[in-house]
Amino acid sequence: MERVALYLQDSHDLRDGLEYVRYAEQRGFEAVWQAESRLVRDAIVPMAAYAAVTERIKVGSGVINNWTRNIGLLAATFLTLDDLAPNRIICGIGAWWDPLARNVGIERRKPLLAMRETVDVLRRLLRMERVTFHGEFHHLEGVELDVVHGRREPRNVPIMIGATGDQMMELTGEIADGVILNYCVPPEYNDRAMEFIEKGLKKSGRTLDQFDRPQLIVCSVNEDHDKAVDDTKMLLCQYLAQQPHIAKASGVSQEVVHEIQSILGWPATKEQILKAKDLVPDELVHRITASGTPEEAKAKVEEYKKRGCTCPILYPVGGNFKLLIDTFAQA
Q1: Under 8 Å CB-to-CB from 160, ≥6 apart: which residues?
Q2: Could you give the count of Cα atoms lying within 13 Å of 175 in the half-sphere of its Cβ?
């Protein structure tokens, strides 16, 4: 069986999401990843719900940030999720992004050091160690997870970093259990990503084939090619306007980004999105997403796999979740 995973965000009713996850499990999907990006839907509550209604599928955060949860609480949260679904939980964590972080009072200084400290301390706590640590961002004095009524053994919760930039990619190869490659990038973006991951892996004595590399991929599947492309444009115009790191990685021109930003507010209204989507070129949709008929979408996903993606994490666009799941079903 080939590996494939589902990515869920906020375009659907949360209870409907439970049905999509159960259906994905039935159709042989390996994992479901819950987004936490804009201030709309946190990852932890849906993850717990998915874990509670399934038996085999892995459940990951795609991704939480390393700034807004105290490290002790973060470890306790993933301990709790592992209690609910032992050996099925994945901690996907990222460095967040401005201007959102700045707008809620977070100064993302020294993001590499902050991530290094977070991964180090979180891993040690989940190993059930008693941790004393005094860094620049985390300070613990004799702290351990206080399990009295439950499993005290170390927990198997892989820590995977959602990296976009070169330096974070290298750090990920050095300290993480895997990388979550970003979406809205062309397949050739992965070539450079692999170079920096391998630089980090050398520091930890590992090789690329020992390192998991799932990738988020925007996937709009529709029997009507033009409808699939149009649905994707509604998503892309928001990401290009609101998340500068994704816009930069996608290679889209700054002129297009600025024009879209001049139309979209934050939060963007449906009227603004409908106006801005037509500024997104068809060529860009085809270059950085898997959009089109089922056959076209599968062919594009294969391009990412040929360039280092070990497991596509498919982000359904357009509302037809079951068609996407059926298109990539393994069972």
Answers
A1: 60, 90, 91, 92, 93, 176, 177, 178, 179, 180, 212, 214
A2: 23
C-alpha to C-alpha distance for 42 and 185, rounded to whole angstroms: 24
Q: Which of 325, 92, 320, 116 is nearest to 215 (CA)?
A: 92
H or E stretch covering 182:
none
Chain centroid to Cα 40, Å, comes to 15
pLDDT category at 256 given cuts 50, 70, 90 is confident
- Closest to 63 (Cα-Cα) out of 97, 27, 37: 37
Residue with tokens 């070169």: 166
Domains of the chain by start residue, with CATH: 5-327 (3.20.20.30)
What span, in angstroms and rounded, lies between the C-alpha atoms of 232 and 170? 30
Q: How far apart are alpha carbons 68 and 39 in whole angstroms?
A: 12
Rounded (5°) CA angle 281-36-123: 125
pTM of the model: 0.93
The reported pLDDT for the residue numbered 229 is 96
Q: How many CA atoms lie within 13 A of 303 on its CB side?
A: 17
Mean pLDDT check: name the lowest of 125-129, 222-226, 274-278: 274-278
Q: With contact defined as beta carbons under 8 Å apart, do 304 and 187 qualify?
A: yes
pLDDT score for 257: 86
Residue with tokens 């069986």: 1
**Interval 2-8 mean pLDDT:** 97
Joined tokens for residue 148 = 């009295």
Q: Residue 320, Cβ neighbours under 10 Å: how many?
A: 18
Is the Cα torsion angle 311, 317, 321, 325 positive or negative in sign?
negative
In one letter, which amino acid is 283? E
pLDDT digits (tens, 9 = 90+) for 194-252: 999 999 999 999 999 999 999 999 999 999 999 999 999 999 998 888 877 777 877 87
Q: Which residues pair with 178 in a beta bridge?
A: 160, 212
- Residue 260 and residue 238: Cα distance in Å, rounded? 8
